[in-house]
Amino acid sequence: MKYGGYFDIDKLSQKHSELEKLMEQPDFWNDQQKAKNIGKELTILKNELEKGKKIKQIKEDLQTYILLLQEDFSESLFNEAKNILNQEKEYIEQIEVELLLNGKHDFNNALLTIHPGAGGTESQDWGEMLLRMYKFWAEKSKYGFQIVDYLQGEVAGLKSVTVEIKGDFVYGYLKGEAGIHRLVRISPFNAQGKRQTSFVSIFIYPMLDDDIEVEINPNELKIDTYKSGGAGGQHVNTTDSAVRITHLPTNIVAQCQNERSQLLNKESAMRMLKAKLYIHYEAEKEKEKQKLESTKTEIGWGNQIRSYVFHPYQMVKDHRTDFETGQIANVMDGEINGFINAWLKYSVKEGV
């Protein structure tokens, strides 16, 4: 709901008034889906309007300080202006990043999947570490975080996991995390204490609104039920009615085991399948399939988007943006906004 890459308060207010008038119509709730979509748009508009007003107020306050300082410079007044700017700096930077989130589904919730690659137990443990990292990031961002499918590793870690993360702009923030993440460390699973390199692949999909149609032929689906293989109460609710759905023409799979009934697991799996198929078909229509599939190449050397080095030095570096930090413990505790923001700015500049 931004106009021209900035907050146009007049246009936002006008649109807000128009939607409120629509909601006052006696037949508003006759079309439930339309009413739901308008309600969602109104919520977004309210948030944008509040942000726009706050940014405008900050700008006006700083402009007042500039005028006063130009007329009669005062050290105390100058320091006061600097303090206000420093207090609002983080908020301004966050709004600057949000202005980059203008993609079709950037506002949506996201489906995140983690698949370990080369490295065996070490990579499976690395997958568990990344799951923890994204969980902490979601908590710090006040987003909902729900594991919907979890396959435990034989010795440690995980073989695969699917998570739904809910909140405003989740997909927009996380879409740049898709790709291969490389770990270099002294392996706790190597008795000789040798340094080892492991790889994990991350996929990100937007969760779609109910009004978005994706054609799915029931005859092209293979539906399997199985007993939950997760790590008990630590990750999922143990159930005998987990569901796996395979779309045979594309071999795309979606599965869910966290619900307590087969029907609910099937509904969740179908929602995830819809999201995956939508991205698949969009990529074909826009002839970007090759770019999308580039994140699905062999999970190994030469394909990583980011490296996490624990030894012989400590460094996390994104190979696309060159953004890096030596605060690796903070990164693993979910402080990844620096990487996310750097990628969003890079994606706009490079037209990714």
What are its keywords?
single chain; 352 residues; alpha+beta; Methane Monooxygenase Hydroxylase, Chain G, domain 1; Alpha-Beta Plaits; 2 domains; eight-stranded mixed β-sheet; 9 helices; 21% strand; flat; disordered N terminus
General description of the model:
There is one protein chain. The chain is an alpha+beta fold and 352 residues long. The protein has 2 domains: 90 residues, Release factor (Methane Monooxygenase Hydroxylase, Chain G, domain 1, Up-down Bundle); 241 residues, Alpha-Beta Plaits (2-Layer Sandwich), CATH 3.30.70. Helices cover 43% and strands 21% of the residues. The protein has 9 helices and 11 strands. The strands form 2 sheets. Strands 2-3-1-5-4-9-10-11 form an 8-stranded mixed beta sheet. It has a 3-stranded antiparallel beta sheet with strand order 6-7-8. The relative contact order is 0.11. The N terminus is likely disordered.
Outline:
The protein has 352 residues and is of the alpha+beta class.
CATH architecture of the largest domain: 2-Layer Sandwich
> What is the typical, i.e. mean, pLDDT?
86
- The backbone outline, from C-alpha atoms, is flat
CATH topology of the largest domain: Alpha-Beta Plaits
The helicity comes to 40-55%
Uncertain ranges: 1-5, 231-236
What proportion strand? 15-25%
Helix tally equals 9
Structural class: alpha+beta
Secondary-structure element order, N to C: HHHEHEEHEEEEEHHEEEHH
Radius of gyration: 23 Å
Distance between the termini: 21 Å
CATH class of the largest domain: Alpha Beta
Number of domains: 2
Strand order of the largest sheet: 2-3-1-5-4-9-10-11
Q: What about the largest sheet?
A: 8 strands, mixed
> What kind of assembly state do the chains in view correspond to?
single chain
Number of strands: 11
